[in-house]
Design goal:
single chain, mainly alpha, Four Helix Bundle (Hemerythrin (Met), subunit A), elongated
Length: 213
């Protein structure tokens, strides 16, 4: 066993353990931390497979942005663990059956759709070295052969983003927000009105009462 194979087995074992703890951890914060560990191990495996761009993207996008944001949201929310556990065993048979169906489908796809074979090596003249860019080849593949699936995925993400904004954008009655457009279009006559007031005459001095100096 060489060093690369040993590292691959190590990263794979840690990845499987972290993925198992994601779905079995009772504390949501612990589940998020294990998910971050799983992403880091997946990035390490991609580095072993010489997919540096995918590894860096996974670390920057998921570990650096999405998971950190999700971790802060989970920590700030007051999640009732007891309420989440209520009715777990009642729905467990249906969930287990769906899990078995998903595992069987994934096994059928993986066993029938992937064959381990050596990639064809193009014939090159002796002494000529070709420098291949992983990112460039990935971009060519995505925007030539898989351009339509990428457009469909982008449209789905756009619709999901607009739907999330529409669901959370609600007009609150107790909000004190001010429309800047109304402030710009305001006129002085609408804010200040000069009122003519009649002059007030001074009252006569009070007369002394009888019996008092």
């Amino acid at each position: 066993m060489d060093t690369k194979t040993a590292f691959f087995l190590l990263f794979s074992l840690v990845l499987l353990y972290a993925a198992l703890r994601v779905v079995t951890a009772r504390n949501p914060v612990h589940a998020v931390l294990h998910l971050m560990l799983a992403f880091s191990q997946a990035a390490a495996i991609w580095l072993l497979l010489k997919a540096e761009f995918l590894a860096i993207t996974l670390v920057l996008v998921y570990l650096g942005a999405v998971m950190v944001l999700f971790l802060f949201v989970v920590m700030m929310l007051d999640i009732k663990i007891d309420q989440l556990r209520h009715g777990f065993w009642r729905h467990f048979p249906v969930a287990a059956m769906l899990g078995v169906v998903v595992v069987l489908e994934m096994a059928a796809v993986l066993l029938s759709g992937f064959r381990l074979s050596e990639a064809p090596v193009p014939a090159l003249p002796i002494g000529v070295e070709v420098e291949v860019s992983n990112t460039k080849e990935l971009g060519k593949l995505l925007y030539t052969q898989y351009v339509y699936p990428i457009q469909v995925a982008a449209s789905i993400l756009l619709v999901a983003m607009i739907a999330a904004i529409a669901l959370t954008l609600r007009q609150r009655k107790d909000s004190k927000a001010i429309d800047p457009g109304l402030q710009v279009r305001v006129r002085a006559a609408d804010r200040l009105r000069v009122v003519q007031v009649e002059p007030v005459t001074p009252s006569p001095p009070a007369q002394p009462q009888e019996g008092k100096p």
